[in-house]
């Protein structure tokens, strides 16, 4: 049975003269009700620009350029060179444990191991291209 709402009371609730319980299957249309998933006055949401703080930590072109330049000039740290040697002989788990001991956290160690393995892959690719 479809219920037609005839009037609203002062609190924004839709009422019928007999206060019948409406079937949920027939209530697909949104009404300004005080309760339920779609409660409240129907409004359109404002489109706001994302906050500047949301881009914190994202790599910029300039910072990437600076880090690459420093890597090119200074090379790798001694612990990074040792970890790369461990990765060369397929000791990934030992390299992770070694890097974690030096850096301090597991997640940063995993990230560093991935970075060093990518560097080794790039070096192998460059050597293969050179030959």
From TrEMBL:
<dbReference type="Pfam" id="PF01158">
    <property type="entry name" value="Ribosomal_L36e"/>
</dbReference>
<comment type="subunit">
    <text>Component of the large ribosomal subunit.</text>
</comment>
<keyword id="KW-0963">Cytoplasm</keyword>
<dbReference type="GO" id="GO:0006412">
    <property type="term" value="P:translation"/>
</dbReference>
<comment type="function">
    <text>Component of the large ribosomal subunit. The ribosome is a large ribonucleoprotein complex responsible for the synthesis of proteins in the cell.</text>
</comment>
<protein>
    <recommendedName>
        <fullName>60S ribosomal protein L36</fullName>
    </recommendedName>
</protein>
<keyword id="KW-0689">Ribosomal protein</keyword>
<dbReference type="GO" id="GO:0005829">
    <property type="term" value="C:cytosol"/>
</dbReference>
<dbReference type="InterPro" id="IPR038097">
    <property type="entry name" value="Ribosomal_eL36_sf"/>
</dbReference>
<dbReference type="GO" id="GO:1990904">
    <property type="term" value="C:ribonucleoprotein complex"/>
</dbReference>
<dbReference type="GO" id="GO:0005840">
    <property type="term" value="C:ribosome"/>
</dbReference>
<dbReference type="GO" id="GO:0003735">
    <property type="term" value="F:structural constituent of ribosome"/>
</dbReference>
<dbReference type="InterPro" id="IPR000509">
    <property type="entry name" value="Ribosomal_eL36"/>
</dbReference>
<comment type="similarity">
    <text>Belongs to the eukaryotic ribosomal protein eL36 family.</text>
</comment>
<keyword id="KW-0687">Ribonucleoprotein</keyword>
